Amino acid sequence: MQRRDVLRLSALAGAAGVLTLDPMTFTQADAAGPADDPEQTKTLSGHLPTGAPDFVYVPVEVPRGVREIAVSYTYDKPTVPAGTQGNACDIGIFDERGTELGGRGFRGWSGGARTEFAISAEEATPGYLAGPVKAGTWHVVLGPYTVAPQGLDYTVTVTLRYGAPGTPRTPVYPPQRAKGRGRAWYRGDSHLHTVHSDGKRTPAELVAAARAAGLDFITTTEHNTTSAHAAFEGLWGDDLLILTGEEITTRNGHVVALGTDPGIFIDWRYRARDNRFGQFARKVRQAGGLVIPAHPHGTCVGCNWKFGFNEADAVEVWNADFTPDDEVTISEWDNTLVAASRGQGRWLPAVGHSDAHREPQVVGLPQTVVLADDLSRTALQEGIRAGRSWIAESSKIDLTFEAVGGRGQHAGIGERLKVGGAEVVTLRLKVSGVGPGCSVRFITDQGQLYGTAVPDSGTLTAEWRTTASYAAYVRAEVRHAPADGGASGVPGPMAAMTNPIWLGEH
């Protein structure tokens, strides 16, 4: 890399920018490849300073007759002072169709999960898309996620293997409907990872874990790739619906694209300052998916949600084991319910997902339980979008939550009970399958207005009466006992929670 490139990198400090290096050029070859050289390899080394652009493109001039392209890379990981980020560098590739944002050239991304990959017409490394290796300018993409004060030294090696191109496989995608039980409550986990990004489970192992967790549906959401969409062939059944999606992993937050059309890729190469998220949120919907910000207050680098919630269809308020960042997210979400109750914008339903990557992370901890007309993509999405859902830490927990008016009016989770402000309303929660020491809380726009302990049997029917003038909405939480016995006033971890029931004429 030339000195002017280093200066340009420094000038672009922190920007969601791009640096394109000089191309790797390979000898032109015919379809059979050079007789004495069935493959060719070239290596590029360079240095990236702190403040490097988010994406560094290495053009690769691919001649005719290439059967397979293989890429490997390394980078240094120097010791850094305490509290300072070290080096972390992702990798992926775009083909001859180009690197345009949202364009068709995407061929795979493995982030930092792999040090090498290969692509041919017949197969590809997980995270990458099989297909012909056509002549033209391909681009290996480095993503320097964090850069140490010393900078980041990298080496990229590209090998082209010549020969007959092979026959591409036709992908087989999961069906978008399973047998189901008609209109019913269906349990699902829609934020999951396998070896197709940074997970350790295979698709078969993930499906086995989902069935063991008592789930009715799952969504495959690999980081910035769709390669897993065709990897579940033969793994679905009448008892399990497998939806396709993506975890769009930007530098300013992650978003679950839930239930996008199989094979549809959504780009991630932008930051909040670029004002591009709305464009790609619309692309998610055009592909039939829901836009769900993931772990908005997550503690990992780049996990905090910076795009706002105007484009969201729901929000992931509980991610994996219940931790303080989930508590913060739920509190923030509840504040938006208060605003919505006063007509100040729409409300976003809450969902929960496990974000499970590997053992011992538990698939289905937590899970979203959705009231849907059938076990299909469309019906589940309608239920989630309407807020007809609740969240549980496992399938052992079951609950019902309803509001009943004095004249027999009835509303369930996510619905509105249309009553006058002074009319008495009965809120009724039935819960079973929770562990000892749990308690129930009813939360309103004024905060908690009712609470009671769950018997050691783990089963409880709780009732509380109020009016629409006193509570604009009511939602229920089931909490474990606080670790400090309640001395701090901070409630214990969540066992289950519902979306709100709205009270009042409008």
Automatic annotation (TrEMBL):
It comes from the Bacteria. InterPro entries: PHP_domain, Pol/His_phosphatase_N, Pol/histidinol_Pase-like, TAT_signal_bac_arc. CDD domains: PHP_HisPPase. Residues 29-48 are annotated as: Disordered. Residues 188-252 form the Polymerase/histidinol phosphatase N-terminal domain. GO terms for molecular function: 5'-3' DNA exonuclease activity; 5'-3' RNA exonuclease activity. PANTHER family: EXONUCLEASE, POLYMERASE_HISTIDINOL PHOSPHATASE N-TERMINAL DOMAIN-CONTAINING PROTEIN. NCBIfam families: CehA_McbA_metalo, TAT_signal_seq. This is Phosphoesterase. It comes from Streptomyces antimycoticus.
